[in-house]
Amino acid sequence: MPPTVTDQLPHALYRAAQVRALDRAAIETHGIPGIVLMTRAGTAAYDLLRARWPTAECVTVLAGLGNNGGDGYVVARLARADGRRVRVLLVGDPERISGDAALALADYRAAGGDLEPFGSLPRRPGVIVDALFGIGLDRPVTGLAAAAIAAVNGASAPVLAIDLPSGLAADTGAVLGIAVQADATISFIGLKQGLFTGAGPDHCGTLHFSMLDVPPLVYSQEILAARRIDWAQQSTRLGRRRRSAHKGDFGHVLVVGGAPGMSGAARLAGEGALRAGAGLVTIATHPAHAELLNLTRPELMVSAVADRRTLDHLIERVDVIAIGPGLGRGPWGRALWQRVRGCGKPLVVDADALNFLAEQPGAGPDWVLTPHPGEAGRLLGLGTARIGEDRFLAARTIQQRYGGVAVLKGAGTLIQGPSQRPPALCSDGNPGMATGGAGDVLTGVIAALRAQGLDAEDAAVAGVCLHAAAGDHAARDGEKGLLAGDILAALRPVANGVFTRPIG
After folding, report:
1. Engineered SS bond to 408: which of 94, 213, 414, 453, CB 3.0-4.6 Å?
2. Strands 127-131 and 159-162
3. Is the C-alpha dihedral spanning 450, 454, 460, 465 positive or negative?
4. pLDDT tens for residues 36-48?
5. Alpha-carbon distance 80 to 259, whole Å?
């Protein structure tokens, strides 16, 4: 799940090197002293601490040697001036503290503060402020720093991470050996893309942001690395329907799938397409259960397909084909995939159709591929764990290798299209959606939006956001036990603006 957000977060996401460049531009081009930015950052962090934990009597700052530690010294000084008991535990040699961090430390000491070497956390640390590592960390955490992070994670105390949780890779969201599990994170100047995907959401808790009053002109020098998307932003894509509209205006989707024992997947995709607004939906499925598939949803048209030849008349009639849900890995599914793959119609490719594609790789000009990490690993000839090391790279490589649009599902679903636009990252959704059939619903949703006139990339972006927001709507009663059918039921109110995900 993407991190819980409490502020109106920017939609621009950056890599660590870009944020460092923005910081330098603010200092060198716009004349804002580094110590001023550091003081603003520490003040913003302390304001959040005071608002989030107003009754906390103690604050323990875990400080590193760089600017992240400098932010922590500012927090410590302000907390001490506010009457809280403060301990600052330094991880590293104090002789190595320099630059603006040394200035912030001097201010803290001048105000009567003290610095201690880290050995262990206090028995009652109060609120722990993670000011160990900033965005410059690019190697696994070891030694004393790893021990300090382990102590933080083992403490029964709330944790505020400054800029990003220490040990988390800013660019990828991967854990560099070990990472702080924060209750809240406040990020500065530019949002780091790793906060929203991979392990980032599990580690940053509630996410806050401050620009530190950096002039907007500073941002013009950097092209964002990724764009954060959500349903609040994407909902206008569907627009209002004309009073004179008819079903033919909203496209005809064909869902191909549902081998024996897996008919539910095709049914979920088909109903997902209907609930996302497709005018007509046909399911081409195995003859063994074709007569039963739409008993409780008669709006779905169902055709028994014994082999690839019987698909031809269906393909001719439809606008978009979604293939893969419940397709199976047997001869029946393989034959249908081979027929659909080269049919010339826009495709949404999921599940076992992706596995067939991995066996016989090739590019397609007009398809949306929707792999989860395991399927992505097979498409790239890698293990699932390798995908998690850099999801941005994985999505980009899939798109380059296979063409069309790649949708890499998971926490912080990524959409990588063929255009020059940066990849999109969806910040809606929740862990309750990690349930069988949710991906089949998404396949149908994307196919429906494609059938309604959106191009492949826009359909993928809007479809992912609609699906995620429906999942949030369905999770109002709790994430555990959420079913794919609950997401289906939520699609209609979300698509029609009856529900929007609250901020906070």
Report:
1. 414
2. parallel
3. negative
4. 999 999 999 999 9
5. 66
- 414-416 and 206-210 beta bridge pairing: unpaired
CA distance 90 to 79: 17
CA proximity to 410, closest of 362, 444, 442: 442
Tokens standing for 321? 């084909």
- Residue 470 contacts by C-beta under 8 Å, 6 or more apart in sequence? 487, 488, 490, 491, 494, 495
Give pTM, 2 decimals. Answer: 0.94
Distance of CA 232 to the CA centre of its chain: 15
**Of 492, 489, 484, nearest in space to 268 by CA:** 484
In terms of DSSP bridges, do strands 12-14 and 414-416 run parallel, antiparallel, or are they unpaired?
unpaired
Please state, in angstroms and rounded to a whole number, the distance separating the CA atoms of residues 162 and 165. Answer: 7
Put residue 219 in one of left, alpha, beta given phi > 0 → left and psi -120 to 50 → alpha. Answer: alpha
Q: Tens of pLDDT along 71-90? A: 999 999 999 999 999 999 99
CB-based contact 270:444 (threshold 8 Å): yes
130 forms beta bridges with 62, 161
CB atoms inside a 10 Å sphere around CB 54: 7
pLDDT band at 2 (very low <50, low <70, confident <90, very high): very low
Could you give the 3-state DSSP secondary structure of residue 68? Answer: helix
- From the list 108, 203, 117, the residue with the least C-alpha distance to 160 is 203
167/163 Cα distance (integer angstroms)? 12
457-472 burial by CB neighbour count: b if 16+ within 10 A, else e?
bbbbbbbbbbbbbbbb
Contacts of 174 (CB under 8 A, 6+ apart): 168, 194, 198, 199, 388, 389, 390
Residue 11 to residue 27: CA distance in whole angstroms? 24
Q: What is the 3-state secondary structure (H, E, C) of 310-379?
A: HHHHHHHHCCEEEECCCCCCCHHHHHHHHHHHCCCCCEEECHHHHHHHHHCCCCCCCEEECCCHHHHHHH
Distances (CA, A) of 495 to 171, 409, 485: 32, 21, 16
pLDDT in tens, 486-498: 999 999 999 998 7
Contact 80, 111 (CB under 8 A): yes
Q: Mapping DSSP to helix (H, G, I), strand (E, B) and coil, where does residue 251 land?
A: coil
Burial class of 305 by CB neighbour count within 10 A (0 to 12, 13 to 18, 19+): buried
- The candidate with the shortest Cα–Cα distance to 265, out of 353, 344, 334, 346, is 353
Give the CA distances from residue 302 to residues 180, 445, 453, 489, in Å, rounded to whole numbers and listed in that order.
51, 18, 24, 21
Single out the residue of 161, 263, 241 nearest to residue 206, CA to CA. Answer: 161
10 Å CB burial of residue 102 (0-12, 13-18, 19+) is: middle
